[in-house]
């Protein structure tokens, strides 16, 4: 496509204007474009979120997320090994228990599905990858909220912190390298850090979902974790209208001892990613989470033939990295790692 043969002999008028600068020079060939690319994707920067469901004997496809499944314990082990072989930087686990209750008891049971799966993967994979777990109660509560409720049905911040502390300790004991505090309770990073230290899990890090917005793009995740949620999470997750508030949330998490911080979702919040990346007071690694709805939007449009799937995937991930996220959580991690290695 670099050398165009004229298709018409119609005479072209002499140029009326000759540009002094020609940025197109550097776009002429794939080799030139590769040389001057400012952002590169590397499998090591990609983290694969994975779902494991108690009682399954084989993977169960998630219809709202074509290509993503709820795993059985065995299929999780196989998919995790495949991701590690492809070179992904880490795995983020979500558990779906059979029994749910008001306080999310299964989140803190050593043999609860999430903790059992962490043990499986730690024993299979040793230190060959970074094992992370979602530290939030919504997959485990019968009401589907990220915390425990007051008698009137509000999410009780400080009572929830106690459960997060127990959950963090259970995940650390099960082998998590990093616990992903995603519930947006005030003080959750400090609370979990203190509990980990008190139980001598000094090397277990806190991966803080620091700026997490109340997004409609979490829609497909509801099916992914069989969520029972009535209502929404707007009393604890951030209002999409707010930008400065994100700086406050991130500053708090860093001050509370977060080892990494995350912005979530990614694609509608690239300004927030850039703000945090540019903030000189944030001196920990920055991640962004390309969430379920962002995944399904692209899969859905590609399925209808409206966009080129593979190019759209790479463009979306490149854009998140370009905005300033060093690490990207994406359901395409294994597939894209394969492309990048090929
Ligand atoms: C909380 C949590 C959610 C997601 C990750 N952690 C759900 C929510 O906050 O509503 C969403 C991830 C996605 O949509 O891909 N447990």
From TrEMBL:
EC primary class: lyase
Pathway it works in: Porphyrin-containing compound metabolism; protoporphyrin-IX biosynthesis; coproporphyrinogen-III from 5-aminolevulinate: step 1/4
Gene Ontology CC annotation, any one: cytosol
Binding site for 5-aminolevulinate 1: 222, 233
Record-linked InterPro entries: ALAD (IPR001731), ALAD_AS (IPR030656), Aldolase_TIM (IPR013785)
Superkingdom of this protein's organism: Bacteria
Active-site residues, as the UniProt record annotates them: 212, 264
Coiled-coil ranges from the UniProt annotation: none
Binding site for 5-aminolevulinate 2: 292, 331
Compositionally biased spans, kind Low complexity: 6-20
GO molecular-function term, one example from the UniProt record: zinc ion binding
Gene3D superfamilies, per the entry: Aldolase class I
Family: Belongs to the ALAD family.
Functional summary from the UniProt entry: Catalyzes an early step in the biosynthesis of tetrapyrroles. Binds two molecules of 5-aminolevulinate per subunit, each at a distinct site, and catalyzes their condensation to form porphobilinogen.
Listed name of the protein: Delta-aminolevulinic acid dehydratase
Gene that encodes the chain: hemB
């Amino acid at each position: 496509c670099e050398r165009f043969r004229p298709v018409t002999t119609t005479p072209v008028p002499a140029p009326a204007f000759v540009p002094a600068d020609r940025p197109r020079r550097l776009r002429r060939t794939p080799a030139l474009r590769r040389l001057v690319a400012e952002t590169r994707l590397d499998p090591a920067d990609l983290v694969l979120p994975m779902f494991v469901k108690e009682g399954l004997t084989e993977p169960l496809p998630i219809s709202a997320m074509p290509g993503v499944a709820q795993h059985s314990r065995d299929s999780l082990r196989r998919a995790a090994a495949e991701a590690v072989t492809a070179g992904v930087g880490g795995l983020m686990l979500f558990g779906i228990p059979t029994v749910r209750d008001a306080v999310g008891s299964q989140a803190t049971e050593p043999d609860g599905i999430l903790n059992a799966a962490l043990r499986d993967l730690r024993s299979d994979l040793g230190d060959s990858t970074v094992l992370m777990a979602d530290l939030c109660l919504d997959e485990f509560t019968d009401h589907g909220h990220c915390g425990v409720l007051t008698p009137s049905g509000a999410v009780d911040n400080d009572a929830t912190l106690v459960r997060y502390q127990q959950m963090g300790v259970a995940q650390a004991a099960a082998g998590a390298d990093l616990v992903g505090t995603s519930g947006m309770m005030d003080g959750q990073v400090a609370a979990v850090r203190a509990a980990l230290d008190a139980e001598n899990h000094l090397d277990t890090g806190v991966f803080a979902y620091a700026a997490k917005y109340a997004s409609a793009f979490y829609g497909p995740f509801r099916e992914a974790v069989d969520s029972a949620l009535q209502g929404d999470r707007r009393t604890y997750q951030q209002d999409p209208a707010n930008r400065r508030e994100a700086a406050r949330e991130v500053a708090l998490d860093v001050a509370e001892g977060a080892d990494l911080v995350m912005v979530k979702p990614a694609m509608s919040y690239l300004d927030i990613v850039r703000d945090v990346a540019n903030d000189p007071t944030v001196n920990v690694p920055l991640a962004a989470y390309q969430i379920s709805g962002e995944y399904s939007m692209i899969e859905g449009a590609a399925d209808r033939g409206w966009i080129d799937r593979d190019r759209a995937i790479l463009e979306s991930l490149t854009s998140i990295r370009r905005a300033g996220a060093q690490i990207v959580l994406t359901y395409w991690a294994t597939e894209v790692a394969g492309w990048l290695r090929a």
